[in-house]
Design goal:
- This protein is mainly α.
- It contains six helices and two strands; from the N terminus they run αααββααα.
- It has one domain: Four Helix Bundle (Hemerythrin (Met), subunit A).
- It is 68% helix and 2% strand.
- The protein has a two-stranded antiparallel sheet.
- Strand 1 and strand 2 form a beta hairpin.
- Helix 4 runs antiparallel to helix 5.
C-alpha cells in the first residue's frame, strides 16, 4: 500500500509543478489538478496490475483494486468538473463534441471492462477466474482515452510548462510499455 500511495503523491507532485506552477493555475484549480493525479494513478495501477512482481511489491489484486477505485474517483471528479465548465473542448452547443464523445466512450468502456476483474477480485467464488483476463483489454482501450484527450498537445514541447511532458503523453507511453511487456511475456509462455 505504501508504494501505491507513494506513486500517487509522485503523480500529484508532478501535476502540481506542471499546472499550478508551470501553467500558473491558482488554488481554485485544485480539483482539476488533483483529478490529473487520480487519472494517472488509475492508469498506472491498471498497467501495473498486469505485471508479475516480487512479493515485496503490492499484489496484482491490490494494484487492480486501486486502479478501479481511482477510476471511479476520476469519473466522479470529471463529471463534477465538466458540469463546472472545465473541458470546453469536449463540448459544443447542445452536447458533446466528437472528441468529447470519444473521450467519454473510451473512458466508460475501460471502467466497464475493469468491472469484471474487480468483481472476481472481491468475490472469487462467485465469478469466473477468466474474468481477470479482461484487465488487458481495459488497459488497451484505456490507452485511447488519454491519447484522444491530449495528442494535440504532444507535438509542441516548447509550449510545455517547464518542458514537462503532458500527463496524457506519459500515461500512453507508460501503459504502452507495460502492455508490450505483458504481451511479450504472454507470447513467451
Amino acid at each position: 500500500m505504501r508504494l501505491i500511495l507513494t506513486l500517487f503523491f509522485v503523480f500529484y507532485g508532478y501535476a502540481v509543478v506542471r499546472y499550478h506552477f508551470g501553467k500558473q493555475l491558482d488554488i481554485s484549480y485544485f480539483l482539476f489538478v488533483f483529478n490529473k493525479a487520480v487519472a494517472w494513478s488509475a492508469a498506472a495501477f491498471l498497467g501495473l496490475s498486469l505485471m508479475h512482481f516480487s512479493k515485496k511489491l503490492p499484489s496484482r489484486k491490490l494494484f487492480g483494486l486501486s486502479a478501479f477505485g481511482c477510476g471511479l474517483i476520476h469519473i466522479d471528479l470529471s463529471l463534477y468538473l465538466g458540469l463546472q465548465g472545465n473541458f470546453p473542448e469536449l463540448y459544443i452547443e447542445g452536447g458533446l463534441s466528437k472528441k468529447g464523445a470519444l473521450v467519454l466512450i473510451s473512458g466508460l468502456t475501460s471502467i466497464t471492462i475493469m468491472l469484471f476483474p474487480f468483481l472476481t477480485s472481491i468475490w472469487p467464488n462467485k465469478f469466473p477466474q477468466k474474468w481477470f483476463h479482461y484487465g488487458k483489454w481495459a488497459l488497451l482501450i484505456n490507452l485511447f482515452h488519454p491519447l484522444i484527450i491530449g495528442v494535440s498537445n504532444w507535438w509542441t514541447p516548447l509550449k510545455w510548462p517547464y518542458f514537462l511532458p503532458p500527463i496524457t503523453l506519459l500515461i500512453v507511453l507508460m501503459n504502452g510499455i507495460l502492455f508490450s511487456i505483458y504481451w511479450n511475456k504472454k507470447k513467451e509462455s
